[in-house]
Amino acid sequence: MATMTAGLHQLPVKMLGDLISPRALERILQDAATSRGVTPGGMDPQTLEDILKREVFKRLQLSVPAPLAKRRVSEVLTELSRSTQERAPLNDAALDGLEEHARRFTLYFDWPETQRLRGVLGVARQEQEAGRDIAALVQEGRDLTAQMDRRLQEGLVVQAQDLAELRAIFTRVQGLGSREVRRLDTLIAQIDEAQTQGTLVPSEVDRARALTYTLRKLLESSVVQGLGGGDSAEGAQARVLELEREHALQTISAAEQEFAALLLVRPELREQLETLRGDSAQRPLTAQALESWTGTLRAVLAEVLNEQRAELSSLERDLSGQPAGAGVRVSLDAARHLLDGGTLATDELRALGTARGALQASPDGAGLSGEAGLHAGRELLDIERTARDLPGAAAELAPLLAAAQTALAQGRPVDLDALWGVLERHMGAAAQERESFDDRADRIVAEYDAVRGLAGETTQRLGRLADTLRAQRRLGPMSATARARYAQTLNDAETLLAEAQAEYRAAQEVTATFGNDALSGLLGVFEFGALEEEEPTPAAEVWTLQGCMLLSGPKDEITVPLTNLITLAEDMSVTELTMHSAGYHWKAQQDAQGLWQVTRTRR
Known about the structure:
This protein has helices spanning 11-16, 22-35, 45-60, 66-84, 92-102, 112-129, 135-173, 179-196, 202-227, 231-258, 260-265, 267-282, 287-320, 326-340, 346-361, 370-388, 393-409, 417-451, 457-474, 480-514, 516-522, 559-571, and strands at 541-546, 549-552, 576-580, 584-590, 595-602. By secondary structure, it is mostly helical. It contains 22 helices and 5 strands. Helix 18 (417-451) runs antiparallel to helix 19 (457-474). The protein starts with 10 loop residues before the first helix and ends with a strand. The chain has a 5-stranded antiparallel sheet.
């Protein structure tokens, strides 16, 4: 094998220096070459190509979106090929390894990337049997698995956050002891096991969320009934309404995620969804209204699926008389698999439509070929998808995208450099935003670590968000959805940090009611599980509570502070308390069924 031309390892530094500093690129090349037992100047073209596809591509994605990183690396690879006229063919082992990696994603059959990868692998085997080069197909397969890896990691971060919230809610409702509570416990165990195995289980998460909503609403509604009228009952009723509002917004967000592909092709549905979200923020929608809305989405989805199946049949007929390259066959297979599984194939059909337009506009082959038209159409889709992830880019690119699409439909070649140039102008802002997000996350985690000893629900919620921020901070390049969640987590965490002092003031209010020792107890000074053995005097007063619901006992000015105290104790997983004030001894104990008995005796 020919050795590398002197100075050729500087090619990536020259061509990628606007995205990564030359010094950083040289360090990446040096480290990668050393790990392979060679020097940068002694690398052969195949080694440099591997480094570009792996280390350099991975590093680029920390600064720019994956499609742009892929394009720029591809440009370096093209120049490298021209310079050396050598490319190492991919062998059977490369395709076998790709198929093995693809098995990790068989559960996620509704992902468009999964079905396209299925098409890529099938066509690659056909091309290999025919003795044709499969390097481009294997590389596309690797790109697809990288995209799915990112999607999986982002999903696991969200699932971990959901799991933490479900566990926190379970501690509040487990005392109800109903069949629904046992079902929730089972679902949480299943989600925990899946999280440990790195598997997404969205159906189980959705069912668990629905159960927590039902149980929390039951608990708060019982409080309203138990307290009768007055300010405390009004507060419980307000919490019920807040639960309903929260559930409505979660249902709308879940529908937005489930029908994301439909909302892209039917913008009027997107407008309706945003209207519903705005209405729910003010006044919770009824369960019937939410079900009606999701039913409407399912009906429209069925209509669009039928339309796309008819479009695919038309494309197959029109392209059947033309020599079908690998790219056309992959897109046809991917579209077929998606539609058979009930998932829209909008992108694949658009790319195939571009190929058909190129052929029909230039039947004599003078213009774009079908394969070239397909390639240009897919690159145009990459630009459009990337623009959606960059604030302001989509609006700026809209007329350029329309003009390019028209040119391709007419069989005319297009220069997409201007469109990529628009995207690159937005790269700096996106990179700076991510750096700002990471800085905010580091600050929040540091400040949480300084106050984590303070007990209370606010601090516990902040702790869960800090865990989520740590996981989000570790993610590499983010999708638009993941970046939006990162921003929301940061905003929520900063709000809770500001509320930490309010939580402390709430603990001081408990001190004012129950005595100075109560605050020390709530902050963890007392030993968990230790109950002083004091016999209640005949004049003892006794309250029985289920969570924050008063089941029996005197109803007076002490009721609200008492229920707040028990709520704090449950948040801290405390089951026994002994406290003293100037005039009373207090004892509280939770039994195996989750019932609290609180006794107050005069000193």
